[in-house]
Amino acid sequence: EAKNKGRDGIIIFNDELCKIIEKKLEIERYLHFAVDNSEVKLQYQPQVNAQGKVIGCEVLARWHNEHIGDVSPDVFIPIAENTGYIIELGEYILERALQALVKWDRSGIRLAQISVNISMRQFLDNSFIDMVEKLFDRYNIYSFKTQVIFEITETSTSDNLKKIVDVINKLKNFGIKFSMDDFGTGYSSLSYLREMPIDELKIDKSFVSKLDDEQQALLVKSIIEISRNMNLSIVAEGVEEKYQKDFLEELDCDLYQGYLFYKPLNQEDFEALF
Ligand code: C2E
Ligand code: MG
Ligand code: MG
Ligand code: MG
């Protein structure tokens, strides 16, 4: 990156940078029609308890476009956030997830919980609460035993904290629970965690992958202990190896999600587990 910067920090547009920007614009252009063209699909990654039993799942968006192929959500979600398309995309994803929930309930697949990622831009949109209420009414989600969880991530500033807490509390009236996703990767602190009326904390996979490091292991241990004191349920993400699961189980982690157990599955494969 440094080599792209001139003496005064001015970015010099070289070919490489141009290509990156072009690529991004291209993605942006196609993304705009992704929902209408039925290019977005949902996958479901099982979450298991210490005994390996599937207790819940996380809904993960997948996008395939015929011109540009598969695009990772790590790429298209931030773009959708920047363009505002996340509002339409997020509603589509939530509706599809709720439809799956209805189908599962009818066919006897009773999950304890289903988690849906909600980006902050979508969460703070003025129409978000009404949209959620509309969908919950439409599918009568209140009648199901499955707990709907919204996964939100920490924000870089505490500017919006009051508004975030307010929206969480309003949505809790619909019976929705909240999970703090990717905790520890952003800028937030433990005091931020305390102020958020959340129910669950997800240990980010960047921590889980470094559990062989003594310092990191101690850090995860403290995060879990503090979360426990706050009565939060704890989900470890990115569990790939047996020693990681064993360590986390020792700390009484509630749920495990990762390739050691299951990769994200399409709906048919997910249903086949039951
Ligand atoms: P996330 O919410 O933290 O989701 C967990 C990510 O870790 C997923 O990546 C999942 O496939 C991956 N993962 C799970 N287990 C393992 C493992 O054992 N090893 C490794 N290496 N990875 C594992 P994915 O599906 O690529 O999603 C990336 C991110 O994109 C998500 O991170 C989330 O922030 C965002 N995202 C995905 N779907 C949605 C969505 O529907 N809405 C929003 N707003 N964001 C989404
Ligand atoms: Mg998540
Ligand atoms: Mg996560
Ligand atoms: Mg993550």
Q: Percent of residues in helical segments? A: 40-55%
List the secondary-structure elements in sequence, H or E: HEEEHHEHHEHEHEHHEHEEH
Please state the oligomeric state of the protein chains shown: single chain
Overall shape: globular
Structural class: alpha/beta
Profile the largest sheet.
10 strands, mixed
Helices, by number, come to 11
Query: How much beta, percentage-wise?
Result: 15-25%
Distance between the termini: 49 Å
Total beta-strand segments: 10
Rg, Å, rounded = 20 Å
What binds here, in terms of ligands, is:
ligand C2E, magnesium ion
SSE blueprint and pairings:
Layout: H1 15-31, E1 40-48, E2 54-65, E3 69-71, H2 73-83, H3 86-106, E4 113-117, H4 120-123, H5 128-138, E5 147-153, H6 161-172, E6 177-183, H7 190-195, E7 200-203, H8 205-208, H9 214-229, E8 233-237, H10 242-250, E9 255-257, E10 265-266, H11 267-271
Residues 45, 59-61, 72-74, 77, 93, 117-119, 151, 181-182, 205, 237-240, 257-259, 264 line the site of ligand C2E.
